[in-house]
Design brief:
The complex is a heterodimer of chains A (317) and B (290).
Chain A: H1 5-14, H2 16-39, E1 49-50, E2 59-61, E3 64-66, E4 71-72, H3 75-112, H4 121-132, H5 137-155, H6 165-189, H7 193-201, H8 206-217, H9 219-235, H10 238-243, H11 262-268, H12 270-274, H13 280-307
Antiparallel strand pairs in A: 1-4, 2-3
Helix pairs in contact in A: 2-13, 3-4, 3-6, 3-9, 4-6, 5-6, 6-9, 7-8, 9-13
Chain B: H1 2-53, H2 57-61, E1 64-65, E2 68-69, H3 72-103, H4 107-121, H5 124-138, H6 145-169, H7 173-181, H8 186-197, H9 199-215, H10 218-221, H11 243-250, H12 256-289
Antiparallel strand pairs in B: 1-2
Helix pairs in contact in B: 1-12, 3-6, 3-9, 3-11, 4-6, 5-6, 6-9, 7-8, 9-12, 11-12
Classes of the chains: A mainly alpha (317), B mainly alpha (290).
């Protein structure tokens, strides 16, 4: 085989990308190794996160130096992550399905009667929906703190405190709506004319055509889009950190309870983890990051399988 | 005939119900669209209003002092970190995109593509924490420009690779064949024919990556730190300020002056990100129309 230096150098450049990913995973595993041994499986099921007494002499457990009384459990953050993301999905799915249907089917109807001086509506509206996706998450968080949290505190929360699970879920829902809506819009636009026309010929109303013929056809893509959005919501950090109230060692009891997600907890622990002389807190945080990586990896892989059509019924022969 | 007559009221009732359900359905869908677009307009409106009212010349000429002062250090820091990240990421990302588009239709290419997608889906805080344990503590760089720029580069490189690949794949194969028929070498075909043909796509990718790097926060918290002063030019062992840090920490301060700074910073960031995205979309639309 001929050696092609040009191709090889391009290959070398492109290998940086998988190398970066492998480095991230590998270093997180190596660094959290001691923490994984010390925490055991209870890491995932314990409620308390306690750095221990950082000023007394460290004790040795299982051959590992840890601060006296240190105990690391992340069940609270796992529950907080899952709860905020699932509520966000519950809010976002009906909104984005409605928005996508309206953009795909109703707006062209309205366009037909649009006067000539008006610019086309659909490109402008779908661009607006897509632009929601690029607003930085910290700006969403700022809006949450300035507008949403006071609103929830004034009108909804019995305690008068707007920070909590509901605020985090609503902000997350706003951030993931465009992902679901654009996925659905694209697949609705690709449905063949004959399917719609045969439904109309049977006497279905326009809305029945959409809800009973078109939506079932794009079900798999819709679910794929939802799972993709779930992956985004699970890993979202800043917006959640700013509005969630930051609970620790306590499980949420209602939608107004303060919560922490895995991602927001990692950020909030920077200072306290650094003060641990045995480094065990920093190692446990690396273990949390690893858990978060594995969860999002599983969710994104599921989304990929669904959107690629590998699991759709029509392709199974 | 009698059967039809007997069914008439039932049929009419059914038709009425279907019409009502359809109308309710359309209204619900329209509400959905309003509820998606409404908050976005509110976000833009609130941030723009509060941001512009906080604008002054001092904002761009003085550095942050505690939670007051200007934003000069943060603006400079964001520019330095983004430029550094792009400097590292663009050659790698565009190179990877070229490889994937031109020679990546095989198992190796698919593997790279898959792992690149996994990297895209990795939460940015995980990347930030990785950089913290590797660059900031283990290598002893402390909070620094280099650690922040490398983290941003890891974050945007998969986007660059993917968008470059898509852009290059749209260049028709006949162009490559024509180049080879004229006796051009592989590098000549790529750099003189394929890349110029896909310039707008590659530039689009770079601009979108820039928008991402300006708006990111989570990966910088553990790598850039924060500094009230202008950048001293050192790549390591010197923390640096950035705009998104101002947004999420200053809004938690009690006084109105720091809130104004947070909104001003958010307005700057949002302006850059939205301007880049709207610009890119308009360019894409124009090239599609002609």
């Amino acid at each position: 085989m001929k050696i092609r230096p040009f191709r090889l150098s391009l290959l070398g450049l492109s290998l940086f990308v998988p190398a970066a990913l492998c480095a991230v995973v590998l270093f997180l595993i190596i660094y959290s190794g001691q923490a994984i041994v010390f925490n055991g499986l209870g890491f995932l099921s314990r409620i308390t996160w306690n750095l221990g007494n950082l000023y007394s002499d460290p004790v040795t457990i299982k051959g590992i130096q840890v601060p006296l009384g240190a105990n690391y459990g992340i069940l609270v953050f796992i529950i907080g992550t899952l709860a905020s993301s699932l509520i966000a999905i519950l809010i976002a799915v009906p909104l984005s399905v409605g928005a996508a249907i309206f953009l795909a089917e109703a707006v062209p109807e309205l366009e037909r009667s649009r006067p000539r001086w008006m610019p086309p509506i659909r490109p402008a509206l779908s661009m607006l929906v897509e632009l929601v996706a690029v607003v930085p998450s910290v700006v969403f968080g700022l809006w949450g703190v300035a507008v949403l949290v006071p609103f929830i505190g004034k009108y909804l929360a019995p305690s008068g405190n707007g920070y909590g699970l509901l605020a985090a879920s609503i902000v997350l829902a706003l951030m993931i709506t465009p992902i679901i809506a654009t996925t659905l819009l694209d697949s609705l636009m690709q449905i063949g004319k004959e399917n719609r026309e045969s439904a109309f010929a049977l006497g279905a109303t326009h809305f029945e055509v959409v809800s009973k013929v078109m939506l079932p056809m794009v079900r798999t893509t819709l679910i794929g889009g939802i799972v993709l959005a779930l992956g985004r919501a699970l890993g979202e950090t800043m917006a959640v950190l700013m509005v969630s109230g930051g609970a620790i060692n306590i499980l949420p009891t209602s939608v107004f309870s303060p919560v922490s997600t895995i991602a927001s907890f990692i950020v909030s622990q920077l200072d306290s983890a650094e003060s641990d002389p045995t480094n065990m807190a920093v190692r446990s945080l690396a273990e949390i990051a690893l858990v978060l990586f594995l969860i999002t990896l599983a969710v994104n892989a599921t989304a990929k399988l669904l959107t690629s059509g590998a699991l759709s019924v029509r392709n199974r022969k | 005939m009698s059967v039809t007559v007997n069914n008439q009221p039932r049929f009419q009732a059914l038709a009425l119900r279907r019409a009502i359900i359809s109308h309710i359905g359309w209204i619900a869908c329209g509400l959905g669209l309003l509820l998606v677009i409404g908050p976005l307009l509110d976000i833009v409106g609130v941030v723009a209003f509060n941001g512009i009212s906080a604008f002054s010349l001092k904002l761009f000429t003085t550095t942050t002092n505690g939670t007051a002062g200007g934003l000069l250090n943060a603006i400079e820091g964001t520019l330095v970190i983004s430029a550094g990240g792009m400097l590292i990421a663009v050659p790698i990302g565009v190179g990877a995109g070229i490889y994937l588009a031109e020679y990546g239709s095989n198992k190796l290419g698919n593997t790279i593509r898959f792992l690149s997608d996994v990297l895209t889906g990795t939460p940015s805080i995980v990347l930030g924490y990785f950089s913290y344990i590797v660059f900031v503590t283990t290598l002893g760089w402390d909070f620094s420009v280099l650690a922040a720029a490398i983290t941003i580069a890891i974050l945007i490189v998969p986007y660059l690779a993917r968008i470059t690949e898509i852009a290059l794949r749209q260049v028709p194969n006949t162009m490559r064949e024509a180049g080879f028929a004229l006796g051009a070498s592989e590098p000549a075909v790529v750099f003189k024919i394929v890349l110029p043909g896909a310039t707008s796509g590659v530039v689009t990718g770079a601009l979108l990556a820039l928008a991402i790097s300006v708006g990111e926060t989570a990966p910088l918290i553990y790598t850039a730190g924060w500094s009230n002063y202008l950048w001293n030019g050192k790549l390591t062992n010197a923390p640096i300020g950035y705009l998104t840090y101002v947004i999420w920490t200053f809004i938690d301060q009690p006084d109105a002056r720091s809130h104004a700074l947070a909104f001003a910073a958010a307005f700057l960031v949002m302006l850059v990100v939205l301007a880049i995205n709207i610009g890119v979309r308009l360019i894409i639309r124009r090239t599609k129309l002609t």
